[in-house]
Specification:
Radius of gyration: 15 Å
Strand content: 15-25%
Order of helices and strands: HHEHHEEEEEHEH
Number of helices: 6
Number of strands: 7
Length: 159
């Protein structure tokens, strides 16, 4: 239950703070909120521009013991992105803050790509690895059902 609360706090941190002022016209926040109870762990990784833009807020969060990771070496316009990483049973999902970005789904099997969610830094290349199992696009009007179907293939359903 505690992990669920922490993951929900990460989700709210991502959507309410990092995406503040960014239109969530596809309602990604509500979609992931319906799945967050199924997450084993989660992590927010903050991009360079969000770090600079929200520096005073991050100092306040750190003083209260809040942790997050940083994205290092994001090229060019990707420096504007932050990510929300959710580890479920059998699969890890990487959701990007930047509108128009895909959502990446990585298998968690013994021979699959694995994220160490305790790390303090993530390299851009590992977040958008070529070892992607699935690359899901937020296609307006269809993505909710496509994502639900893909997650259901791994036995993950909304709470």
């Amino acid at each position: 239950r505690i992990l669920e609360w922490l993951s929900e706090e990460d989700l709210r941190f991502f959507f309410d703070l990092l995406m503040q002022g960014i239109d969530d016209d596809q309602d990604r926040r509500s979609f992931w909120l319906s799945y967050i109870a199924k997450a084993k762990r989660s992590r927010v990784a903050v991009g360079a521009q969000d770090m600079e833009r929200l520096r005073p807020k991050f100092r306040e969060l750190e003083s209260r013991g809040r942790s997050y990771a940083r994205i290092v070496d994001a090229p060019g316009t990707y420096a504007t992105s932050s990510v929300f990483i959710m580890e479920f049973e059998g699969v890890t999902v990487v959701e990007f803050s930047r509108s128009g970005s895909a959502c990446y789904v990585y298998g968690n099997g013994a021979r699959s790509y694995h994220f160490d969610l305790s790390k303090s830094d993530f390299r851009w290349a590992e977040l958008k690895s070529t070892k992607v199992r699935e690359r899901l696009i937020h296609t307006k009007g269809r993505w909710h059902s496509e994502f639900r179907n893909k997650l259901a293939q791994y036995g993950i359903r909304p709470a």
